[in-house]
Amino acid sequence: MLIESAIIPPYQDIYLKSVLLKAKSKKPGMLLLFVTYYEGGLLVKHCRRIGWNVPIYAPDSLTEPKFFELAGDLGEFYILLSPTLNIKRPEAKTLAILWSKKHKGIPPIATIYGYDAVKVAKAVIEMGGVDRRSFIKKLKEVRVKGIGSPVYEFDKTGEGKKSPVFITITGEQFINKNFK
Q1: H-helix segments, the chain
Q2: In a domain, 10, yes or no
Q3: What is the CATH number of the domain that holds 33?
Q4: What domain count does the chain have?
Q5: pTM strictly above 0.85
Q6: DSSP assignment string, 115-154
Q7: What is the DSSP letter of 163?
Q8: What is the pLDDT of residues 85-101, one digit of tens each?
């Protein structure tokens, strides 16, 4: 298994030719990206620019509209998503309204999970979790409807009771479903 990494300066439209040509020469079966939307957009754009048509897989963090703008032609590109994510559910209404005031499309995954985290923390505090010890205790009792997950609840160790389930869709399917 080939694992290579490169540090990409944020917010610079650098040309990644040497790093990508080196990776391409190893002939991997896929390129897996674990980066933010900005770096992901640049990597996809430059992969396609050098004629590297390898399938690219990425996490749901690359659902930000700016990623698609930066990436351009996606080629064979797949996004790993949680099938429980539904921005149209009643729990999502407030976030969707706030998001649409400044942005197009749906909120990116990081925004959704961040919003849910604040809702969970708020519920724990309202239950009396106002210091470290009481917060941890009350976290184990909380049950909050979310956007990224239908319900957030935690076991005695503080771990989520339900493991996330993921599906894979193409970038084109994601665009058609969420931006058109």
Answers
A1: 17-25, 37-49, 65-71, 93-100, 109-126, 132-139, 171-178
A2: no
A3: 3.40.50.2300
A4: 2
A5: no
A6: HHHHHHHHHHHHTT--SHHHHHHHHTT-EEE-SSSSEEEB
A7: -
A8: 666 778 788 888 888 89
